[in-house]
Amino acid sequence: MVNPPGPLIEVVNAEKSYRGVPVVHAISFHVNAGEVVGLIGPNGAGKTTTLRMVTGLAAPSVGTVRLDGHSVVSERGPALKALGTIMEESRFYGYLTGLDNLRQVARMRALASGRASLLGYLEEVGLLQAADRPVREYSLGMRQRLALAVALLVRPKILVLDEPMNGLDPAAIKDLRDRLRQMAADGLAVLLSSHVLSEVEHVCDRVLLLDGGRLVGEERLRGERRDDRPVWLQVEPLDRAADLLREAGWRTERQDQGLVVYIGPDEVPHVIRHLVHHDVAILAVVPDRGGLEARYLAQTGANREVIG
Ligand SMILES: Nc1ncnc2c1ncn2[C@@H]1O[C@H](COP(=O)(O)OP(=O)(O)OP(=O)(O)O)[C@@H](O)[C@H]1O
């Protein structure tokens, strides 16, 4: 079946109040097929509440949420049919194998539970080798992959993940990022939340910044090379340095009487050599500072001193 035109996730003026007090205020956004979108904000920003509205766990007090063109409230069945989720820490039976845990969920939901088909899901998330090991022997990263396999059981068009990177080590984070990118490349719409921007910015095509229950910013990241990191430079003269870097093909932005340049980890010496060669004085080089992270911190009011 061809996807109906339009976004797979569509949130229009959705608002959630508890006992008359709004915790999410009239937010609107969409996620298209093939996109990974991050919902970013500090603790209490309203990320989980928003994802609960998107996944039909909480009805919006006002506004609408449509999945695959269907309202999660009035057309719940078809809307949720398109959806796979990891919404809270997934609980598995430790004494059962990964395969048996998956079978358990599949049976509970009346989904295909044949061994071959379940092994297919485990292979998709890189757990085939561990299929017959009890889950109590799984690392957190492996449990998260098993949770992803569970989310995929319904063959979703949409994946919604609440803080999927939480507690994972860097290797497991990279693994999950790569899998999510692949799933997006296969046409899924992926919406995930995090309170740590740097964890997700490399996997997301766009990020939505949430604070105090409001969307305070949106940033498109597609097109940037994914391994690039912001490096803040204090240089003299500034204009000349900015021109030199731009002419050499590096993306730069002005920030705090300095420049942020987006470069790969190996490129820092090249950038410095290039500037020095053209008689620019380097007064300070601060890696991993600037760009989106700084704007995020500024916008959400957290850690203002970082950019101050
Ligand atoms: N069921 C509820 N009843 C009343 N208030 C709630 C309820 N659920 C959430 N809230 C409030 O809504 C606000 C947003 O909470 P939410 O869990 O959505 O934030 P979050 O961005 O996911 O935060 P965290 O990163 O800490 O999980 C908080 O102030 C929270 O106390």
UniProtKB/TrEMBL annotation:
PROSITE patterns: ABC_TRANSPORTER_1, ABC_TRANSPORTER_2. It is an enzyme of class 3 (hydrolase). Residues 9-237 form the ABC transporter domain. GO terms for molecular function: ATP binding; ATP hydrolysis activity. InterPro entries: AAA+_ATPase, ABC_transporter-like_ATP-bd, ABC_transporter-like_CS, P-loop_NTPase. It holds the Pfam family ABC_tran. Keywords: ATP-binding, Hydrolase, Nucleotide-binding, Transport. Its EC number is 3.6.3.41. It comes from the Bacteria. Coiled coil: none annotated. SUPFAM superfamilies: P-loop containing nucleoside triphosphate hydrolases (SSF52540). Belongs to the ABC transporter superfamily. This is Heme-transporting ATPase.
